[in-house]
Prior knowledge:
8 strands
Amino acid sequence: xxxxxxxxxxxxxxxxxxxxxxxxxxxxxxxxxxxxxxxxxxxxxxxxxxxxxxxxxxxxxxxxxxxxxxxxxxxxxxxxxxxxxxxxxxxxxxxxxxxxxxxxxxxxxxxxxxxxxxxxxxxxxxxxxxxxxx
Length: 134
């Protein structure tokens, strides 16, 4: 049985949090954008999401709402994590604070069959940094 667009989008958000990109989620030629990422293939996405550092742990994803309209799915999400390792941004290193922060956002995904062929994800990562560092 084919996976629903809703369940695939949930898997995609979990992959974004963990860095584990399954070929069952995205097409080979997926195009994606976030405020700090742009990719034009699943291989690029795997490389980018696979480069997770150890800055955040105890990551959880809450998805209060998903709407499916034809071949598009839209979801709100809240990703929460603890700052337990050094966080490197450009040349600056921020030592762990132990604080928990939440990144809220929305994702718009277009599907080709049962896989995501493009996505746009909107969030304010500066708000997360403010929670973790100050």
